[in-house]
Specification:
The complex is a heterodimer of chains A (about 400) and B (about 280). By secondary structure, chain A is mainly alpha-helical. Chain A is about 70% helix and about 0% strand. Chain A contains 13 helices and 2 strands, in the order H-H-H-H-H-E-E-H-H-H-H-H-H-H-H. In chain A, helix 6 runs antiparallel to helix 7. Chain B has 10 helices and 12 strands. In chain B, a hairpin with a 2-residue loop joins strand 1 and strand 2. Classes of the chains: A mainly alpha (about 400), B alpha/beta (about 280). The interface between A and B is large, with 57 and 64 residues.
């Protein structure tokens, strides 16, 4: 199979140029020393990936404990660690609760739900971002593209304006979640034609739905009374303030579903980077894959956004940074992005809580402040390397 | 969508079996036929070249055969499977397609991309041959020394060869190649076509859309000439690629003659006599 010959090498008139033959070695291109006949097909760098996971997990634990110990009421890092160990491994007589009951209560009723929530929301957003970029075959895709954020914002605003209370404290979150999912499904269905969805159509439909969602949000803001208006505005800024264990219980399973689903889809998402046609030629049911991935993204983002408001750019930035280390294969990218998102948002929330005394900065503002310039940098970099938006 | 079956492996074809058949194939856009009543049989062990001028419907034909487009009339079968109703995985185990313009949207390495060609076989007995198939495909496409390079950093020809290696790694009974030589230099053009020829000699059915008529004549068992979406001629290269027919189809006078050394067909446009050569003849 490897024979390559120059056309005029033989004078005999064969009906077609010569093929490889047992003695064809003389005519083949000299084999380079390092390529051999049976080259070892190298696997992705496992050491590098292992180190990344180790670093991410260490960072996750450190930042979580640090975040739980810092704040207006300071709790010792050691105390926090021992108390957490006690909660986790108390049955094995490891660690012990903090002696100061007020500190123990603050830690477990205020700080810890918030820390865990920041981890979960960051994980959900980053995982959704990685899935989204895979589905669109574009490293600059963001979950906001498919309308989930603006849909959720509209749902929340409508719930606040209408004073909806059918689910008690969860009413606003439930409305945001439902509206986010509905907006995504609408984008998907409207961009379908002839049983297929083209990526460009999907993006443009997303823009249309986002515009309508924005109009609805403006409507709600304009016609609400003063207190509802404040609530809508603050909801949009995004904050983890007031996180509760009940919220964690709802978001955690959804993040798990997103992660498991993402890992199952990983190999097929890799193939999608060859384009829809080539992926189909390799046996991928592209429409089913795209629908499944979009549903996962919508679930993850809607769950995150419903409780914490809009937190921008985590889904865009984290997968991109992770991809630089793990390479583009989704099997590693998805779990690593999930960890990276958790670390990033926990750190961002720590800054939001502690940067200014007696002020809880909106975390969405912080992530956008860092994410915006980063997005611009990505854009420049993509232009330089790929010659433009491709 | 999530399917891992190893009971659905395609039957092995032997030389001469019909690997792919299209009957009365037609495709229309805005009431204009891009392809009209094309009948085609591709047999295991042969190379068929599809040639014709721009807009003759070559790529449309390939898209229909690959199942990318739904035909307006007629149907395509790959082996025992009807293309329109088959699951993509059943098709992927029977035919591989080399696209005209390969693209990879993330910086996968060449080895990663070639490995993607093995994905239809995940969960089947054929999975054991993955590494061997990848290694062989890399050698055949002359990409072994570039296997750790990131796909987007390759030149156009190298990208085309990496995609070709991916198609080979799929190890299917049918190969559909859309202008496999378009981006390649002379050496690699010959290499890709002689590899296609080798595949056919091992029992694979190969259909290639080509622009270079001499190349088609050299490597194909049969040539199909398309014109305005219809088959203008079909048969052995020597019977089909005549100066008369080609001049008619391409609307350009063409010279067809035998190569003085190896006797293969050489097909070039008729050009005015070269001045320098004329002077040389006078001396």
């Amino acid at each position: 199979m490897t024979a390559l010959r120059s056309g005029l090498e033989t004078a005999a008139p064969p009906p077609r140029p010569p093929m490889s033959s047992p003695d064809g070695a003389a005519a083949t291109r000299p084999v380079r020393a390092h390529e051999g006949v049976g080259p070892a097909v190298l696997r992705p760098r496992p050491v590098r990936v292992l180190v990344l996971f180790a670093v991410l997990i260490a960072a996750l634990i450190t930042i979580s404990l640090l975040s739980a110990s810092l704040g207006q009421y300071r709790i010792g890092f050691g105390d926090v660690t021992r108390s957490v160990l006690h909660k986790l491994f108390g049955w094995a007589h490891v660690g012990h609760p903090i002696k100061d009951h007020f500190a123990e209560a603050t830690l477990w009723q205020v700080r810890m739900p918030r820390v865990v929530m920041s981890l979960l929301v960051g994980a959900a957003l980053a995982c959704a971002g990685a899935l989204m970029q895979g589905v669109f075959g574009n490293p600059l895709a963001d979950p906001g593209v498919i309308g989930v954020s603006s849909g959720a914002a509209f749902g929340a605003a409508a719930a606040i304006m209408g004073g909806v209370t059918f689910l008690g404290d969860f009413s606003i979150a439930a409305c945001a979640f439902g509206a986010g999912l509905a907006a995504t499904m609408l984008v998907y269905l409207l961009s379908r034609s002839g049983g297929r969805t083209e990526v460009v159509t999907l993006v443009l439909t997303g823009i249309a739905i986002n515009a309508v969602g924005g109009a609805g949000l403006a409507f709600c803001t304009y016609f609400s009374d003063q207190s509802a208006r404040d609530q809508i505005v603050f909801w949009q800024l995004g904050s983890l303030n007031g996180s509760r264990w009940e919220y964690v219980q709802i978001v955690a399973p959804l993040v798990l579903v997103g992660l498991v689903g993402g890992v199952i889809l990983a190999r097929r998402l890799d193939l999608l980077s060859l384009g829809d046609r080539a992926a189909r030629h390799l046996g991928v049911h592209v429409e089913a894959l795209r629908l499944t991935a979009i549903v996962l993204v919508a679930l993850l983002v809607a769950a995150a956004v419903a409780f914490c408001g809009i937190i921008a750019f985590v889904g865009l930035v984290v997968p991109h940074l992770i991809r630089m280390i793990t390479g583009p294969g989704h099997r590693m990218l998805l779990p690593a992005s999930l960890l990276g998102g958790a670390v990033l948002l926990a750190a961002a929330d720590l800054i939001a809580r502690t940067a200014v005394h007696y002020a809880d900065l909106p975390i969405g503002m912080l992530t956008a402040l860092v994410g915006g310039p980063f997005f611009f940098w990505l854009l420049r970099r993509t232009r330089l390397h790929a010659g433009g938006w491709a | 969508m999530i399917r891992t079956r190893d009971d659905a492996l395609p039957p092995q074809l032997s030389a001469g079996d019909v690997a792919l058949a299209a009957t009365d194939l037609g495709f229309a856009v805005d009431g204009r036929w891009l392809l009209h009543s094309v009948n085609l049989e591709l047999h295991a062990g042969e190379v068929v070249a599809v040639v014709g001028p721009n807009g003759a419907g070559k790529s449309t034909l390939l898209s229909l055969l690959a199942g990318d487009l739904p035909p307006a009339t007629g149907a395509v079968r790959v082996g025992d499977v009807p293309v329109r109703r088959a699951h993509p995985l059943d098709l992927a185990r029977r035919r591989a397609v080399l696209p005209q313009q390969p693209r990879v949207s993330f910086p996968f390495t060449v080895a990663d991309v070639v490995r993607m060609g093995r994905s239809p076989w995940v969960g089947t007995a054929a999975e054991d041959e993955d590494d061997a198939a990848i290694a062989r495909a890399l050698v055949t496409a002359d990409m072994t020394h570039l296997q750790q390079r990131r796909f987007p950093t390759l030149s156009g020809g190298e990208q085309a060869r990496a995609s070709f290696a991916r198609t080979l790694a799929q190890q299917t009974g049918t190969l559909l190649l859309d202008e496999p030589t378009a981006a390649l230099d002379l050496r690699h053009q010959e290499q890709v076509m002689s590899c296609a020829r080798d595949c056919a000699d091992e029992g694979v059915a190969v259909l290639a859309v080509l622009h270079d008529l001499s190349l088609a004549a050299a490597y194909a068992d049969r040539v199909i000439v398309l014109r305005h979406g219809e088959v203008a001629a079909s048969g052995r290269p020597r019977d089909v690629l005549t100066a008369e027919l080609l001049g008619d189809v391409y609307e350009l006078p063409v010279d067809v003659f035998d190569h003085p050394l190896h006797g293969g067909l050489v097909i070039v446009p008729t050009r005015p006599l070269n001045e320098a050569l004329k002077n040389g003849v006078r001396q």
